[in-house]
Amino acid sequence: MTYELQKLQNFLEPILRTKKTLSPKRKHAFDQSKFEESIRSFNLGKEDWKSIEDFLISIVESIEFNFPHNIFLDIDYLSFEVINQCNSKDTVFLEELNLKKEKLISIFELFGKDSKIKFRYIHDFIYGFDWLKWMLEKRNPMENQSPYGNDFLNYISSRGSELVLLIDQNDNKYPNLMEEFRNPFLFSRTPIEEEKLHRVLQEIDSLPISSWDIYAIPKFDKNYSSIRTKTAQSLGITQNHQSGSHKI
User: Fold this and answer.
1) Global pTM?
2) Distance of CA 176 to the CA centre of its chain
3) For tag attachment on the chain, is the N or C end more exposed, with fewer CB atoms within 10 Å?
């Protein structure tokens, strides 16, 4: 198969051999063929395609570096949603895409392995649990609902900075854990348990975003975070006793 984004295909090939997907129809994460087909109607120029390629390579590189233990790499929806937003007639495509890339990478660095927050996975961001909390509790009615719109990204950046301040103060809910990966949830998130839980959540249609689907419709009709905790309990997943565990 010949790809428009051949450099991207060559870059992703060895990575996708090791990363998993929650798609019930594919064995590997990210369907590049479908992604390219979906954006051809955007009337993109040669420089636009190069910029998209650079964007996706940079995003995956950042995820791989900041979250090396990440299990799933379902970035189909994120990729399409960002390109679709940047293709708006009200934006300058190349400038907007570059700004989005910088914003996403800064978020990954803020929450990743070398940060004070030090989360192990990016699953909560990709599958929409972070976005769900914002939609149900934090979003201003005038703000855009998109999981990768600037309103939500600005919120998650601000929230990350707040967490760093709490960690510096050795807060009860967000203590300084030194070298240990942080898990504020009440259930364990070892790789085996994390994969098991997310596969069941996919099977019972209880993920806020079906991120392997470029045309996914993000859902906030239920408290999927609460469903996740109850599902973890029903599966017998170990309770998390790490200092600061408190979240459903």
Assistant:
1) 0.95
2) 24
3) N
